[in-house]
Amino acid sequence: MRPVIITANWKMNTTPADAGPLAADIAKATDVANVTRIICPPFTNIAAVSAAVEGSGTLVGAQNVHAESKGAYTGEVSADMLKRLVSWCIIGHSERRRDQLESDELVGHKIVRLTEVGISPMMCCGEQLDEREAGKAVETVQAQVKATLETVLAAGMNLPSDLVIAYEPVWAIGTGRTATGADAAEMAAGIRATVADVAGAEYAESVPVLYGGSVTADSFGEFIAEPSIDGALIGGAGLKPDQMTGIAALAAEAAAARANA
Ligand code: PEP
Predict the structure, then answer these.
(1) N or C: which end of the chain has fewer CB within 10 A?
(2) 213 C-beta closer than 6 A to ligand 1
(3) pTM flag (> 0.85)
């Protein structure tokens, strides 16, 4: 059975001073059974968040990692530097694809780097609005997933058993617009079909697929009601303990229902 996962992506918000108290509030607000709970603060606030959530069961993730192991990359952070600081890392977020022009192949190399050091990769993918309007959403995302995973295989590595794929339609991120549950389920099926082509059906069934894009306590129920959607990657609402309380409660209900099914 796949885990139910809720991940707060804090983006470039919080400081070392306020991240700890906020993380402690969120850890308390999301203290539910059988749900994997992850907070991804900025690099500079990882230590404060880790100290604040210690013993709560909340896990800590990074928002990015460099695709090379080490070297002359001023200002960058390697997988080795993150080892033991975080258990998860978001990669390929659409804001990085937009601002740093990250490609699917680069994201594949990041999976390799994370897997080498035992950090679980949470790989983002998603279509632009014009691609959805042209009826090309599923094929666009499938191409992203295929190119990324094939890069990992071409590097001589098996796909990691802890890979998570977060489907985030770009037009839904930070806009207050969401996809529908049915759209997300259609995309999850498309993603798993591509993963199955690359790595086999059994592996594809084991990969959790999350939805992301303006998720709130009000909208999350529609997504987690879909059996193919295993949780959420949450931006804005991930900074709000009251929102995270509602999201975690829905996640716990879904986890319990799936365990009893
Ligand atoms: C995100 O940062 O991945 C995200 C989905 O943001 P928001 O929930 O604010 O749309």
Answers:
(1) C
(2) yes
(3) yes
